[in-house]
Design brief:
Blueprint (H helix, E strand, L loop, with lengths): L12 E4 L4 E5 L10 H7 L4 E5 L15 H9 L6 E6 L1 H12 L4 E7 L17 H13 L1 H13 L5 H14 L5 H13 L13 E6 L7 H10 L3 E6 L6 H4 L1 H6 L5
Parallel strand pairs: 2-3, 2-4, 4-5, 5-6, 6-7
Antiparallel strand pairs: 1-3
Helix pairs in contact: 2-3, 4-5, 4-7, 5-6
């Protein structure tokens, strides 16, 4: 499908390092600078392509419409063959990339991600739908406070909550924050996307990295993915919430030794 309203040139990708191509995809409301703490180490082994998702960071002028649109627009700007590391919402984009172009995507690293963010009758490892609805409603009333609440959820369960929360807040302030419309569209994706039925079609090797105390994407989701992905390996970080690469950067980088 062609998305006529999207300017593909407005997708920002920062490339550094040498080695096999590794694409890095951040989560909702963030930007590619969230990976700063692990870039130096990873760029010694990989050619990193840090993508600002549509509507985020320096891709702020590229409209965010849907998970499929986001995936297609990004795919057109990526190398011919690559591995992809996606955090949270970025993990769902990574799964879509692997499904849409299996001949291009070599391996997946899914960080604190999930096939389904919302709790359902047959899916206990998600957030309450009402919680995401409340976030959507509150964005229009108090943009800054709503973002702060989401950041606080991300660090919940980590042993170093204050440090990681301060880092996330500083990271958001480094760039121009997404518009309320972009954040609303991103929350809608989190609320409606469900990739469970397609997950067993992912043929690539998958490394799952997850915090045991994650309250946004509970660790049960990672256990489920390990069982339903044909070629998956799970690494659980104890005393860790939704951002293992921030809480334990050295351990996070060491997980890539198997790639």
């Amino acid at each position: 499908m062609i998305w006529p309203s999207v300017d593909m040139a407005s997708i920002h990708i920062e490339t550094t390092g040498n080695g096999p191509d590794l694409v890095m995809l951040h989560g909702w409301a963030m930007h590619s600078g969230v990976w700063d703490g692990v870039v130096e180490s990873l760029s010694q082994r990989f050619r990193l392509h840090r993508v600002d998702l549509p509507g985020h960071g320096a891709s702020r002028d590229c409209a965010l419409d849907s998970l499929d649109q986001m995936t297609e627009v990004i795919a057109d700007r990526l190398p011919g063959r690559y591995s992809v590391c996606g955090w949270s919402l970025g993990g769902q984009v990574a799964i879509r990339l692997a499904l849409q172009a299996p001949e291009r995507v070599q391996q997946l690293v899914l960080v604190a991600s999930t096939p389904c963010f919302v709790r359902r009758a047959d899916w206990p490892w998600g957030m309450e739908d009402s919680t995401l609805t409340l976030f959507m409603e509150n964005l229009a009333r108090d943009y800054t406070q709503t973002l702060n609440r989401f950041l606080t959820l991300q660090v919940s369960g980590s042993e170093d909550q204050a440090r990681v929360l301060a880092w996330l807040r500083k990271s958001i302030l480094r760039g121009q924050p997404p518009t309320p419309a972009t954040l609303q569209a991103g929350l809608k994706i989190l609320q409606t996307s469900d990739l469970r039925a397609e997950l067993n079609q992912v043929s690539q090797p998958v490394l799952l990295i997850h915090g045991r105390n994650d309250v946004i994407t509970p660790a049960g989701a990672a256990d489920w993915m390990q069982q339903h992905l044909p070629r998956a390996r799970l690494v659980l970080f104890p005393h860790c919430g939704h951002a293992p690469f921030l809480s334990f950067p050295e351990q996070f980088v060491s997980c890539f030794d198997a790639l």
